[in-house]
Known about the structure:
The structure holds 2 protein chains of 2 kinds.
Chain A: H1 2-34, E1 43-50, E2 65-66, E3 72-79, E4 85-93, E5 97-106, E6 112-119, E7 127-135, E8 138-147
Parallel strand pairs in A: 2-8
Antiparallel strand pairs in A: 1-3, 3-6, 4-5, 4-7, 7-8
Chain B: H1 3-13, E1 26-31, E2 47-50, H2 57-65, H3 71-77, E3 93-96
Helix pairs in contact in B: 2-3
Amino acid sequence: xxxxxxxTSILALAVAAVLSAACTKSSENPGATGTTGTSAGVRVxxxxxxxxxxxxxxxxxxxxxxxxxxxxxxxILTEGAAPTATLKARWTYQDGQAVKESxxxxxxxxxxxxxxHISKPDGWPTGKxxxxxxxxxxxxxxxxxxxER
Amino acid sequence: xxxxxRVFDRKDDKPAEATPNFSDVSSGGSSxxxxxxxxxxxxxxxxxxxxxxxDSLSKIAKREYGDANxxxxxxxxxxxxxxDPDLIYPGQELKVPGA
Lengths: 149, 99
């Protein structure tokens, strides 16, 4: 009798452990793919702005304040690998007026830096701007900056 | 000074600003990651895929590009063979650009 009860308890514990593991796994999945669009495993981990770049596409002089004559660089760090991942930079002015939008399709094999830059020959109007970065058409990061005299 | 005065003053003091023109903005970019194959640049190259039972364009795109949403690339390259993208047949030889 004791042996039978002991065996049943072990079986119940084993079933509970399997169910618990299954529940944990299913609740992890949506978060894992939620911000990475169709290229599972790639994510945007950092966005920096500045006036110039180093050879490895990192920002030389990070800032969120620019002069009207500056070329504005954005350096985007992605982590992970995928056969294809599309990064889009959408630059807007003040209340959302479109400034420029550009796209790059990359095949990252690990951590990678992708840079976008914009310039305006007759100078940037002063005011507040925003950069929004999309990964596979899902918004992945935003960065506010300002142009001052 | 009432609310009407203030509205009136603001109108007189500050004419509406013209919307800035960003049509001359130039842009560029580069990456330390390899560029992914661009389907439009590689039409004419790539490989041939023979359709098997149970295939669909999105399944082939997933297998060849890792992205089921790229089925249209295969469809565009084989419009002479495929009349309806939902109907492909076993034995059809499809061009897979850039694969």
